[in-house]
């Protein structure tokens, strides 16, 4: 059976981008057609400035949102990365497989290092090495497929390169995983800045739809979305009209259909925005309602995470032991 692994880092409140780019494909395909593991990758949240109390809160919230989004702990393994020490054990071997140049080329490293420098914070070394930890997250489970949004494609490609290199040097040890992207909305853009990704750690919330936003807030954000100057007609053109294309992508992702074909049904931006707002509100309504119910019972969420970590550990330990042996380390 195909093995799937993916995760989200608790660096902010989850967004519509996280949902359409990642979580929804996990719910729809991952847990039914494959053996799946989904992880709150909390160690990755330590690669940038963080507040410990907020990290704890967000980690619980992300786990609760996994369940609220429809991930069923009877069908898939839900856990927290730092609860399974095999991830960090394997990460060191990945650092010994990757090169400095390879890690410095990562787009996210360049962007986030520039941001940290501009704000006067030092750049944490872990920001550079984080793709090695991400490779370990994936390879520790003999993962076949990694469903992510477009922004994570480069890291999964690096993971493939590291797996192939390790296997060539030390003998076949790892399954080489492949990335899977959603067909639409693989990169949901910020509603106020449609040339930038909608990101949960961005400073301004005006262009970001959070999964737990109230319907009125979602509607306001969508109705104020930046559209493009031009003749006012609605056309799907990601380069020339990124704002409208983003709205059409979101509408297509929520209601089905093809974004370019949907454009033909609109004369102006107002009607399009109203339909997008309504579609997003309806898409997220059940998630928000289930989250409220689950958040009232944190002990149940903790129980799910404990059971998930035990299952994950049992899967990862033999793979990581195999890698330690292959690379030449003596068994304890
Ligand atoms: N805008 C997006 N569109 C589609 N998919 C997205 N994902 C993230 N943003 C979008 C996908 O969600 C999964 C988890 O993302 P993450 O936790 O690795 O990172 P992030 O949400 O991109 O947040 P950061 O890095 O903390 O901060 P930002 O984004 O503000 O720079 C991944 O599968 C990702 O592809």
Describe the structure.
- By secondary structure, the chain is mainly alpha-helical.
- It has two domains: 3-181 and 297-327, HUPs (Rossmann fold), CATH 3.40.50; 215-292, Tyrosyl-Transfer RNA Synthetase, CATH 1.10.240.
- The chain has twelve helices and five strands.
- The chain is globular, with a radius of gyration of 20 Å.
- The site of adenosine-5'-tetraphosphate has 21 residues, from α1.
With strands numbered from the N-terminus, the spatial order across the biggest sheet is 1-2-3
β-strand number: 5
User: Which ligands, by name, code or SMILES, are bound?
Assistant: adenosine-5'-tetraphosphate
The secondary structure category is mainly alpha
Shape: globular
* Largest sheet features: 3 strands, parallel
Rg calculated over all Cα atoms: 20 Å
User: CATH homologous superfamily of the largest domain?
Assistant: HUPs
CATH architecture label name of the largest domain:
3-Layer(aba) Sandwich
